[in-house]
Specification:
143 residues, 2 strands, elongated, mainly alpha, two-stranded antiparallel sheet
């Protein structure tokens, strides 16, 4: 489903609220896909996985979660709830390259005390920095 590149962007407030909701959903995803396997592995082997391996596992699990949902219909559950969709800058579905780039760039955007998020306050289209750099944008699905 192509969306007009001129589609209304959701407010920054709505996107931030969606991100908070997404964080709660990710607790369940990470509990099931990361904590449980590492807990069982630790009980079985009597040792914990190295920290770097644990972080890599989190990175990959979240990449699969976001990548699959964004590729499938441009929305995570939180984005569906808050009536938003991820599209390319031209309004078409994003490519796999754009999705991977957006995901990788979102980490420093968030981990730098949210500077990539604050970027939206100065951006002409109110897009986050990782969206601007990946050639994607969040648009509203409610009209």
């Amino acid at each position: 489903m192509a969306t007009s590149p001129l589609a209304t962007p959701p407010s920054i407030r709505r996107r931030l609220t969606s991100m908070v909701y997404e964080a709660f959903l990710l607790l369940g995803v990470l509990s099931f896909a990361v904590v449980l396997p590492h807990l069982l592995l630790g009980m079985y082997r009597g040792t914990a996985a190295p920290g770097a391996l644990l972080w890599l596992h989190v990175f990959v699990v979240l990449f699969v979660y976001f990548g699959w949902l964004w590729k499938r219909n441009g929305q995570t559950l939180a984005m569906q709830t808050w009536k938003m969709r991820l599209v390319s800058a031209d309004g078409t579905p994003p490519t796999c390259r754009q999705l991977a780039l957006r995901y990788v760039l979102a980490w420093p955007s968030l981990l730098s005390c949210g500077l990539g998020i604050l970027w939206a306050l100065a951006d002409r289209d109110r897009q986050f920095l990782h969206d601007r750099l990946a050639g994607t944008r969040i648009v509203s699905t409610q009209e």
